[in-house]
């Protein structure tokens, strides 16, 4: 079985929600590819293609996409996709 590619996190320079998202994924040991859309027009085009909008942060993992989110909003969206949560290694805090 082929493993899935790493998740992509589209960010913008100076975006506090982007910084928060990067810190969250780092603290959880989730490796993400950081794509700064402020510095790379191709990354911006890719983010718009997957999310339909230009706001960051935007998280992409296969068909699972969360656009323009805070960490709390990301986790709320992730709750509807337990298989993605498991693949990312993010535990439910229900122990």
Please describe the structure with a list of short key phrases separated by commas or semicolons.
4-stranded mixed β-sheet, 95 residues, alpha+beta, Glutaredoxin
SSE arrangement:
Elements: E1 8-11, H1 16-27, E2 33-36, H2 41-51, E3 58-61, E4 64-67, H3 71-78, H4 82-88
Description:
The protein has one domain: Glutaredoxin (3-Layer(aba) Sandwich), CATH 3.40.30. The radius of gyration is 13 Å and the shape is globular. The chain is built from four helices and four strands. By secondary structure, it is α+β, with helices and mostly antiparallel strands. The model has no long low-confidence stretch (mean pLDDT 92). α1 links the parallel β1 and β2.
Overall helicity: 40-55%
* Main β-sheet, spatial strand arrangement: 2-1-3-4
Number of structurally distinct domains: 1
| Most strands sheet | 4 strands, mixed
Q: Determine the number of helices (DSSP H or I, runs of at least 4 residues).
A: 4
Q: Supply Rg.
A: 13 Å
Q: Give the class from helix and strand content and strand pairing.
A: alpha+beta
Mean pLDDT: 92
Under CATH, the topology can be stated as Glutaredoxin
Percent of sequence in beta strands = 15-25%
Report the principal-axis shape.
globular
Low-confidence stretches: none
> First CA to last CA: what distance?
30 Å
Count the E strands.
4
Name of the CATH class: Alpha Beta
Name the CATH homologous superfamily: Glutaredoxin
Q: What order do the helices and strands follow? A: EHEHEEHH
What's the CATH architecture? Answer: 3-Layer(aba) Sandwich
């Amino acid at each position: 079985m082929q493993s899935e590619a790493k998740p992509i996190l589209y960010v913008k320079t100076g975006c506090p929600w982007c910084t928060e998202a990067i810190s969250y994924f780092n603290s959880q040991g989730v490796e993400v590819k950081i794509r700064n859309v402020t510095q790379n027009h191709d990354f911006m085009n890719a983010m718009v293609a997957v999310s339909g909008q230009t706001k960051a942060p935007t998280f992409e993992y296969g068909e699972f996409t969360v656009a323009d989110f805070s960490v709390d909003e990301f986790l709320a969206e992730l709750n509807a996709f337990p298989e993605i949560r498991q693949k990312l290694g993010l535990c439910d805090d229900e122990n």
